[in-house]
Amino acid sequence: MDITDVRVRKVNDDGKMKAVVSITFDEEFVVHDIKVIEGQNGLFIAMPSRKMGEGDFRDIAHPLNSDTRNRIREAIFKEYEKVLENAVATNEETAEEPSVTEE
pLDDT category, 94, cuts 50, 70, 90? Predict the structure, then answer.
């Protein structure tokens, strides 16, 4: 199964949740609401989950082995870094433009 698309749908600068991602497999199956979270040991992904009872959460969709989880994580982090780099470049370009004042 190949990862054919990764879309970073929302990026947050504030808080621990840094992004919400959708990932497509074989151009046929998509998983939405994968979260990129800043933890104590760096970034990690959290698969979509549902609250079950007293504060327990259960994944709705998740990989069954560590190799698949690693491929998903690497693809998501690669796209997330691209989005961050583009945001920084856009901010730098905006900051460099001279302001125009009318006289």
Answer: low
Give the number of other Cβ atoms within 10 Å of residue 49's Cβ.
15
Within 13 Å of residue 39, how many CA atoms lie on the same side as its CB?
8
Instruction: Classify 16 as helix, strand or coil.
Output: coil
Spatial CB neighbours of 70, under 8 Å, sequence gap ≥ 6: none
Residues 63 and 91: their CA atoms lie apart, in Å, by: 36
Cα atoms in the 13 Å half-sphere on the side-chain side of 1: 13
The domains found in the chain, sorted by start residue, are: 3-95 (3.30.1120.40)
Q: Which residues pair with 37 in a beta bridge?
A: 17, 44
Could you tell me the pTM of the whole model? Answer: 0.81
Q: Which pair of tokens denotes residue 50?
A: 């549902």
**57 pairs with which residues across the strands?**
51
Coil, helix or strand at residue 27:
coil
